Structures
1.
Amino acid sequence: MLLIPCPWCGPRDEAEFRYGGQAGIGYPADPAALSDAAWAEYLFFRDNPSGWFAERWFHTAGCRRWCDALRNTEDNAIAGACPPGGTLPEVPR
Amino acid sequence: MSGPERVEIVFDGRTLAARRGLSLAAALLEAGVRTVSTGAATGRPRGVYGIGAEEPGAFVRVESAVGAPMAAATEVAVEDGLRASGLAGFARLPAGQEEPAAVRRDKVWAHCDVCVVGGGPAGLAAARAAADAGARVILAGRGAEFGGGLTGAAAAIGGVPEREWRAGQAAALAAAAEVRLLRRTVVTGRYDHGELIALQRRPDAPAGGALERLWHIRAGAVVLATGGAERPIAFEGCDLPGVMLAGAAAGYARRFGVRPWRSAVVFGCHDEALWNAAELHDAGVRIAAVADARPEPGAAPAAALAERGIALHRGHGVLRARGGADGTLDAAVLAPVDPAGRACGDPVEVPCDLLAVSGGHDPVLDLAAHTGLRPRWSAARAAFLPAALPEGLHCAGAAAGTRAAEDAVAEGAAAGAAAAAGPEVPGGGAAPGPVAARTAHGAADGGAPPMALWATAGPDTDEAAVVVDLAREATLADVRAAVAAGRSSVEHVKRSTTIGTGPDQGRTSGVLLTGLLAAMLGRGMDEVGGTTRRPPYAPIPFAALAGRDTGEFLDPVRRTPMHAWHEAHGAVFEDVGQWKRPRYYPREGEDMGAAVLRECRAARSGAAVLDASTLGKIMVAGRDAGVFLDAMYTGMASTLKVGRCRYGIMCTADGMVFDDGVAVRLADDRYLITTTSGNADTVLAWLEEWAQTEWPHLCVQFTPVTDHWATVSLTGPRSREIMAGLAPRMDVSAAGFKFMTWRDGEVAGVPARVLRVGFTGELTFEINVAAHYGAAVWEAVQDAGLEHGITAYGTETMHVLRAEKGFIVVGHETDGSVTPLDAGMGWAVSTKKDFVGRRSLARADSARADRGQLVGLVPDDPRRVLAEGAQLVAASDAGAAPPVPMQGHVTSSYDSAALGRSFALALLRGGRDRHGERVLAVHLDEATPARVVDPVFYDKEGSRRDG
């Protein structure tokens, strides 16, 4: 079980969280202006890297706040977490 | 130490005297039981082979105390009244035997700076050093006492005899404030971020205490002092009872004084096996011969054997173990062997009843492997050693390949200190890496390097009798056949031969298989590698994983304030999420169908009442609440006037219906929204997600208030009269209290908020009161309704009534692939604003004419209720050979009192344009004809909603 550093509560067990997928996928400012393909890109397409990945977690059984975390998908190392859209630590890419 | 206590145990129906503190395996050896069980496939006899978790042969069923359908005899402790029997073939769960209720199990969550796994010399030293450095320490050891392989050894640590040293360490640890000692505890898994799972057996638990305890440990750093695993050498007949690991045999003699053998042959290829021979001799076992496959064994052990007058055969190996009349070991056949184990001289036969064999020792690194570490082969040490340990993981003692006790202690202390220091060492120095493994095999100590030897063979060796995996009874011939079939990956050979898949998980056969494959394929040991080690390291009973989370503690149960009334009135409950909701209230002689028809009739013709307290309720507050809800609902919320309510649908971004409910505008900056009963938490999370991650600039907050309120939904044409009686100061007239409005007032003498919203199509008052008034108000409604024939109804009736009106239920009519337009609710979708999901509704796929659309169905046979989930096919496809094109499926289906017949809702391809068409509803090979109709079956004009 991962130990996720909630920016508000500190390190907490993964069981207290819900996963929120890739971080930094913003809702388009004007969805109506997008082509079907561009909209589908927003809806369905996500990165799936082997390595560092910025992702979202929701501390549903804790402070009920969302955060972004930087996790290495190869060994589950977590470099840090921040409020949504904040600054995550620099890591070798 | 006082004299060992003798207790009675029963094995295979025989009563034996045994010493407490021994393992069952030791007790059986001492009692002269040579054959403990039989092989699952061949039925060949199996004796005690090892001394710990590595045991591949002696499996038993434990019938007393906690019990176990299958356990290694080496892992079962002798207790008074122990009953066990040898397993013949496969393990079987005892039929119809309930576990005694007294067996209790629980779970503990613990945190520490340093967790030391293993209670041997390295582990004790590591725990001491970490504790001395001020760390919070957990030390987990498998035995009833700490000491591990050191126990009973002639070794001294820093001049202190081992027993004194052990006692001193344990006492110092017990006295330390921040040290937790877990005895009889096996760490079964190591997971991410320092998480360990451990199983503790507690035969000495106080009465009523847990006999097994599952530990969830979160450690800042972990020291693996998990010791070494001895591997055998394979030869013909090496599975006979009487053949044992040399270290195990010496361990039984040294640690427990168990030495039932008259004459022993020892066979090895490293110095420690020679020392084992000396130990057995010193314990009183006659050593008939010692064979060392190396031409040059260590000078010191060779001298020790010579001193004792023991014949040491250099460059020799055992080619064959011979069985006697009872099927157990009778003699060993020795011959000179070359470095590959092939016989190169004349064999001699040596009678013996113990053949102690040892091919070397590999560190037990399962817990390191659980997160992906691969050990590396050391040719010099003839063992797989740890390599490149990640930060926060340390390895010491035999687990690092260090076999000598004093070296292991030094290494353990260093690892403990490093673990306590963490990655940053004060003073700016780099953290110490894994301590370099030392060797006790240097020529300076009179030692000689070990040799890697996997199997021996003579000219007439039958490879089908050279057993590689005792538990799986897989042989050298099986390995050779797998390679001949073209398999070259150790994982493929494992699956092909089953080597390593037995209950012992191949602890004695894993490295052997790698070595044999490397030799057959001409590859290096690292190139072949080992099979993946996965948790759990040792078996965990499911019951231990469950702990107390069974029965009523399995999942929280949520009950409404009116629950006691429902129970007293015979309600049949159904689970909705964690809620218990009345499904129907059967009267004398009624089945569900009859009860539901009665409840429906009451709602349509008189008055009926539903406990709607489980409806999800979320307070949405803040000056931007309206703007925010506009983005969440398909319809408008910001234009809703204070005092009014509006039905709303929420979609996911892909345009599919996600939830529905009613938005109630309480004030300019305040809404109460309702959600589906089972979906309240999901909707709350959804709102939080958008508010926090997309539009944090909006001022809006959410408060879940579901169980703050009790909700009584009073429906039916006579409900106004009842309301008038309950709330004399409230204007409940059709003109004064309009549909989709709300007001605060007093109902049954308590403050209440009443909504004119409903789900039945009839005149409805939804009375909300503070939860603690719920039971009283519910009863007051019953009393006030008595003269009007008020009838309590449950969820089943609610479903029938809403389906008659064509109202959808999220999860019935929707499944994550249904848009509001598919569900026929375009009227609830605004075209004037953006909302989450709107763009998706403009995709070509959303506009497809052949999407599943909500329709009604009336079966040709009015008494026939279609199966929910039944697939729909065109009537013209009746009798056609499959596959027949699917047209849709039945989503809800009931018998209706108001219609006097059965009816259903369905999603049908292009259904809105197919009213009047006939379809077949297919369920369990039966096709039921039905006609497609409008989904609103009852009161299409909506004339009944205002009474």
Note: The longest helix of chain A spans residues 36-44.
2.
Amino acid sequence: MKRIGVLALQGAVREHVQMLESLGCEAVLIKQSADLEKLDGLVLPGGESTTMRKLLNRYELLEPIRTLAKQGLPMFGTCAGLILLAKELVDYESHLAVMDVVVARNSYGRQVDSFEVKLDIPEIGEAIPAVFIRAPHIVSVGEGVEVLAAHDGKIVLAKDNHLLGCSFHPELTSDARILEYFVSSMV
Amino acid sequence: MKQTGTELVKRGMAEMQKGGVIMDVINAEQAKIAEAAGAVAVMALERVPSDIRKAGGVARMADPRIVEEVMGAVSIPVMAKARIGHIVEARVLEAMGVDYIDESEVLTPADEEFHLLKSDYTVPFVCGCRDLGEAARRIGEGASMLRTKGEPGTGNIVEAVRHIRKVNAQVRKVVGMTEDELMTEAKLLGAPFELLREIKRLGRLPVVNFAAGGVATPADAALMMELGADGVFVGSGIFKSENPEKFARAIVEATTHYKDYKLIAEISKELGVPMKGIDIAQLSQNERMQERGW
């Protein structure tokens, strides 16, 4: 059974845990660095990236997670998780800075502009529901980074080798195809 | 087709706040302190609840300039309060682009019979509740998030504890019932029948439920998480304490690590004086904000 960590400082932790378990994985809550042992993959959930960053710093999780990412541990960041992974952020200081993408925060406006839409993702499947909540987007990608999906001309799902990041929240829907893609083809 | 303001988009926004602390602020400076401490959102107000108590008179929606100032100061979501049933205050806040509206008993109600039809709005709403009937009626009207009412501005956790225990005990009861018992339960609670069926199917409320109304210390915040709250609102507790920066950080950490008692001991050391509390028994019936709402 694959052991997948879910960063559990704040945000959509329960949803990711349930989805991982429905895919036959063991989900491990990560609250401190000792929890990071023996993982096959790590999910960075949606939530508030500024809050997660403060807590990552205070509990000395930032460096250990960065090291694991550099050692090749597969990671999947959704929304705030993508912001944590990005090498560069527009107008803000970067966090883990491991995924070769430039990300802009709150790209679609405020909560009244948040939306849901169905995306066709050639690599994964058709009509995948995507929920964008005060979502970021990927402004540009580095060499070797695969763009898996775009919406309205903005990149919203990309893969940098063992790192996967999306602007939206697959965990809020009952469609597990993107997470399944991560655990079955990347982990 | 791209759709805004759907139930999923509105409820999802609250799901992203889980495990976090939402702080009352009255200006840009306080908002920045809250964001730096790790708040997941701020509630922009003209006065915190304890000052609303002191001031007396009619409490209304905040001056839009204050809300705007707070929205300009931070990158985290900004919430604001509208009076119960005040359609125009809510529409004004929505038009300004606030991320969440609290239809709040902390303000003087504008309608003593009807709450807002919150499903009509693109912006999501949070509402207070003391029991499952109240919680289910608010969800039925379209609330995307709940919070306990507690007793705002008192620094006394006792009412918030009562409310979260009550709601969760009633949810457990519904989950344990057979289908044929639900209609009578719906009648007794004054709750929509379909919602009780949904609660039974999910095994929990269909929206997140935060604690609010009396959280004054890191231990209070952790207590509410222990009792099953999804997160915590802190009103007067932070900026009425002696050292708001330190207090705000400690409350955020205690909420995340609510079962780590050594850590809570550590962060609670020398925090300075918390807000002065009020014994609920000292409040007259018309001073109890939790009685507002129906």
Note: The first strand of chain B starts at residue 3 and ends at 4.
